[in-house]
Amino acid sequence: MADAPTPPGSASIRMQIHKNDDFRIDGILRLIEEARRPGPLPQVLKIMCEQVAVIAHADVVSVYVREASKDGDWLVMRANVGFPQSALGNVRLRLGEGITGTAAEVMRPISASVAAEDSHYKHIPELGEEKYPSFLAIPLLVRGSVAGVLVLQRGEANAFAHAEVALATALATTFADALEGARGEVSEFAPRSARLVGRAVAPGVALGRTLMLGTLEALRERSSSLQDPALGAEQAFEDIVGIVRRAMKKMEAKLPDPELRKLRTYALMLDDQRLRDQMHEQCARLGLVPGLKQVAREYAVASYATGDHDPMLEERAAEVESLCLLVAAAASGFALPSGGTVLVIAERLTAMIALVVVGLSGSGILAAGDLDPTSLGAAVARAGGVPVLSDIAGLFAWVRPDDSVLVDAQDAVVGVLRVNPPATQIARYRHGSK
User: Fold this and answer.
1) Which DSSP letter does residue 375 get?
2) For position 223, what pLDDT does the model report?
3) Do 349 and 380 meet the contact criterion of CB atoms below 8 Å apart?
4) Ranges of the chain with pLDDT below 50
5) CA–CA dist 254, 241 (Å, integer)
6) What pTM was estimated for this model as a whole?
7) From CA 139, how far away is CA 141, in angstroms rounded?
8) Long-range contacts of 367-376 (CB under 8 A, 24+ apart)
9) Residues 120, 95 contacting (CB under 8 angstroms)
10) Collapsing DSSP states into helix, strand and coil, what is residue 296?
11) Cα-flanking dihedrals φ and ψ of residue 360, to 5°?
């Protein structure tokens, strides 16, 4: 039947059917189908590698599968196009080892125009991969954990373009589907564990369970059952004041004089009747979390009262916000970072947070952001003997509440975080060995 005539004055709208003469589209559709095909996993992955080599114009395509053993997790090459067959099962990398292991560790794609020039590169002589310098590694995620890594390599030393990285990341999801579908046919994937690297901000070693304090908003539902939010905030404030004062008494002889003077200045807010009245009034009017958020907001706005950025007022506002968060947590019955727990934070370690960790004998502090080692919070942690690691790539991707973690910040610069470490590492820690 002929197309109906286009009405006068209207734009011509035509659809386009992408037929089976587009090798990339055909290949992707076949790849999706192949990922769901029953059969031995190595065979399925091998066929998928062949198809990706064509779709992505790659000279080498490898699939590493994450496997557990008595001595920890390994990424084992289980399928490949472009390398000798002997590599299968014999090329093994730790999480965080090489570019491939680093992609698994940070749970993000990593590319390099010349892989051997990157400090993370690990040379495996038997592969001859120096002939394929252009490198792209993509983690394969199954239910929030890394189940493997897809690696693409090319013979020319040109970085993969952004569009090519996006395409390869989409292709990687089909490999993740194949691995998930094979759970019942192969040994179960390793439990979620990892070795993450960070920057040591305060020295020490600690073993404990993770506690994620989060944000005020995260406590809203938990605090909704409070009968009297204003009274709850008042009682929680007194509890936090007691913890902070105990911590300060512990450290008076340990903090350098400049930091001690600054800390005493910020501690004055604990006796600030205006702040207490604001908390009481706002919590009575709005509820616990909305009221404390309003208090924090007022102090944040006040730091720009002159129209210019005032670093001292901004830092005070950050301390007030942390105090509000701690009050909300205590009033809601949320666990505070006491003995045997390692506090996980996002970007900033305030003095108030550090004081509560020290006052309750918390085991350590972890941060995804790059903490300032000269900050007052960092100084408090050091004086209190609490190890702190910052700038941990993949922290929130790997760590969950109540995970077992081993924090090693003994090195002056680089620290190591082991998430759900094996029993052998825990035993070494308890016997005083790194």
Assistant:
1) S
2) 79
3) no
4) 1-2, 10-11, 18, 20-21, 184-190, 433-434
5) 20
6) 0.59
7) 6
8) 367/198, 367/201, 367/391, 367/392, 367/395, 368/392, 368/395, 368/396, 370/199, 371/199, 371/201, 373/201, 375/349, 376/259, 376/262, 376/263, 376/266, 376/315, 376/350, 376/351
9) no
10) helix
11) -100, 10
Give the Cα separation of 197 and 106 in Å (integer): 10
Residue 11: count of CB within 10 angstroms of its CB: 6
d(CA 89, CA 132): 21
Residues of the chain with CATH 3.30.450.40: 23-181
Place of tokens 């992707």: 28
Q: Which residues pair with 148 in a beta bridge?
A: 65, 140
pLDDT digits (tens, 9 = 90+) for 66-104: 988 777 788 999 999 989 888 898 899 988 899 999 999
The neighbour count for residue 431, using CB atoms within 10 Å, is 7
3-state SS assignment for residue 138: strand
Which residue's structure tokens are 């209207």?
10
The CB density around residue 158, as the number of other CB atoms within 10 Å, is 11
Q: Which two tokens stand for residue 294?
A: 């309003």
Q: Which residue has the tokens 């406590």?
A: 219
Residue 196 and residue 414 in contact, taking contact as beta carbons nearer than 8 Å? no
Residue 260, both tokens: 């001690």
List the beta strands (DSSP E) in 216-368.
341-345, 364-367
Question: For 23-181, CATH number?
Answer: 3.30.450.40
Give the end-to-end CA distance of the chain in Å, rounded to a whole number.
78
- The alpha-carbon radius of gyration of the chain (Å, integer) is 27
Which 3-state string (H, E, C) describes 189-232?
CCCCCEEEEEEEEECCEEEEEEEECCCCHHHHHHHCCCCCHHHH
Backbone angles phi, psi at 65, to 5 degrees: -110, 135
Give the pairing of strands 388-390 and 364-367: parallel
Residue 401, Cβ density class (10 Å: 0-12 exposed, 13-18 middle, ≥19 buried): exposed
Written as one letter, the residue type at 418 is R
- In this prediction, residue 72 carries a pLDDT of 75
Task: State the alpha helices, DSSP H only, in 74-119.
Answer: 98-106
Tokens standing for residue 46: 């091998």
CATH 3.50.30.10 domain locations along the chain: 194-430
Tell me how crowded residue 309 is: count the other CB atoms within 10 A of its CB: 9
Residue pair 110/134 in contact by the 8 Å Cβ criterion: no
Say which CATH topology domain 194-430 has.
Answer: Glucose Oxidase; domain 1 (3.50.30)
pLDDT at 314: 81
